[in-house]
Amino acid sequence: MNAVAAVDLGATSGRVIVGRFADGSLDMTTVGRFPNAPVTTPSGLHWDLVALYRGALDGLAAAFRDEPGIASIGVDSWAVDYALMRGDRMLGTPFHYRDERTARGVEAVHADVPFAELYRRNGLQFLPFNTLYQLACEREEGMLGLADAMLLVPDLFGWMLTGERVAERTNASTTGLLDVRTKNWDTDLATRLGVPARILPRLVDPGERVGDLLPHVARELGGSAPVVAVGSHDTASAVLAVPMRADRAAYISCGTWGLVGVETETPVLTDAAREANFTNEGGVDGRTRFLHNVMGLWLLSETIREWEREPGAEKVDLPALLAQAAEVRTPVGIFDANDPVFMPPGDMPGRIATWLREHDQPVPATRAEFARSIVESLAEAFAGAVRTASELSGIPVETIHIVGGGSLNTLLCQLTADRAGVSVEAGPVEATAIGNLLIQGRTAGFVSGDLEALRAVVAEAFPPTRYAPRV
Length: 471
Hints:
Helices cover 38% and strands 21% of the residues. α9 crosses α16 and α12 crosses α14.
């Protein structure tokens, strides 16, 4: 059997998925799932990456039991976060991008390099947690002088598996230290910001071999296979798996975040793009993901988490809540899903209510109305971002593709179609893992072709659900 294994690390959970290729088609089996729970310590909010690695190893061991002849392993994760290394040791527990320290980094970076210049060099929208802002905090704390490498999360896992230090290019593009035109490290910018060039690893592209499993890892997993670089930024893998015509469609990779945009051949670096806070991130095969980050389903999940913290609270039934939200007929308030006030963890219902009250919008009276307000606000933000992406890129959007967990939210899909005025095609749910598997499959020779050919495999294996806009 032509099989490969994907380690797909999300902001709340991770999974290991085995992909099997036969006659140009793809079949998937999830062999491991494990939680990803951040930890607050006196120093701030951190990822428990050792526990996450343990979950990945257990999943990969199950993958080898399922398919002893696995041809390769690929790892993807969320962007921007990293570990500083000295030799074979991590210098502390990696910070979570929602940690409040990043505000200090923003001030320090912009004092050295104005944002307009940063945008010309790296093409990234302003997000206070971008890696270069985090590294400015490390510089102030004296950590950069101790480090000899910075490894982004999927590259850190690759190092744990193989001992090789690399930086996969699509994820490196989210650091703010990659030249948006040359797609190489901008060492001049790094030097201006006090980031030693020595900590920036060798760049690799999706499809390149990273290395073989270390002997002790192979013994634990009960098998061996090379680790292959994939679109290790999860959105890069997800966009690869959008069954779209890139010259006529927009995509929304919807999970904790909603990444809304279009795929272009070259970056869009206009003043209008900067002012609209759109980003140019690296895609597979040299494409550009021109997109805007919208807060995403974080708004709903954090609201539910707060409700479940209440004394005597029971677990919220999300499908039932969304069904009730779909039946709400009372006009609900629409809030700005991009407002940074919604970024930190905590009392999301209270912050939403305060925002609505301060903007003379009706405050929800029931949980169903809260859910409806969140979904309506997300749909409005998604539709607006699609319109802006189309205007800035010149791509006429005839269809919006929603992939990831948000593609299961029928209310969100329908309301997005309604507000955008174009059809929405929803699915696949596991787009990130599919993109990861397809790059590995192409590298192994199990499938072939350009992105359009790979997307045809996705459309055949995972036909989308269509939502037409209601007049």
